[in-house]
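Following up on my earlier thread - several people asked me to post the actual chain instead of describing it. Fair enough. Here it is, all 241 residues.
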Amino acid sequence: MLVSWWWLFAMVITGIYTGVMVSYRSVMPAVTYPFTTVAEAVNSSLIPVVLTGFAPEKILKNSRPHTELGRLWRKVVENNASVTYLEKAFHLVNEGRHYFVTNLFYAKYDIALDYKLTGKCRFTIAPVRFVPSTLHWAVLKSSPYKEGLNLALQYLIETGLVKRWIEELLSSDLDTCLKPREASVVATPFPLEELQPVFLLLVVGYTLSILVLVIERSMKKFLKSRGQRREEVSSRNKALP
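Reply from S.P.:
Thanks for posting it. Predicted structure:
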C-alpha cells in the first residue's frame, strides 16, 4: 500500500511539473483591457475623466441622455470627473478607478509626456473608439480659405509631414507603453506555497496508508489467533475419550 501510494505521488508530481502547472507558470497572458466597446465602458465600474473645455467633454455633454455617450456624461457629472489639469486626470487614472477620454493624438502625447517625466509605462490606450468620426476644422461654407485649407491639409498628410512631426514630437520609446503585450513563454520558479497541496496529498496518503497497514496487520493477527484457538479446541475435542 505504501509503495503504491508513493508511485501515485511520484506520477502526480511528474504530471504537474511537465503538464498543466508548468504551462500555467510559464505562459504570460496577453494584456486584457477593462472594456473594449463603448457599451462595456458604460456598464463598467470605472469612471470616465475628461478635460474641461476640450472636444471630448463637448461631445459627451451634447449627446442625448439616453445614448451611450450621454450615459457616460452622466457618470462624469455624478462623479465630478471633469478636470481642468492633465496632471489631475493622470492622478485619477493612476488610482485605478478612472479612465481618461481623449483623442488618439493627445492620448499618445500625454502618455509620452508621462513616460518622459516618470520613466515608467503607467498608462496605455484601450482599443475603444468613443466617437464614430474624426474631428475637423470648421469654416464657413462660403469662406475663401476653405479650398486653400483643404489643399494644405491634404498636402501635409499625403507627403507624410504630419506623421513625421508626430513621431518627432512623441517619445521614441512610446511603443514600449502602447504595444499590446502578447502571450509569451517565460521561466518562472515554483513558490513553495503553490506546492503545499501536493505535499498535503502526500501526507494524507501516507497517513491513510499507515492506517490501512495497521488495520491489515491487526486483522491478520486476529485471524491467526482465532485460527490457532480453533485448532486448539479441535485438538482437545479429539483427545477426549
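Strands lie at 27-28, 47-51, 82-83, 98-100, 184-185. That should answer part of your original question.
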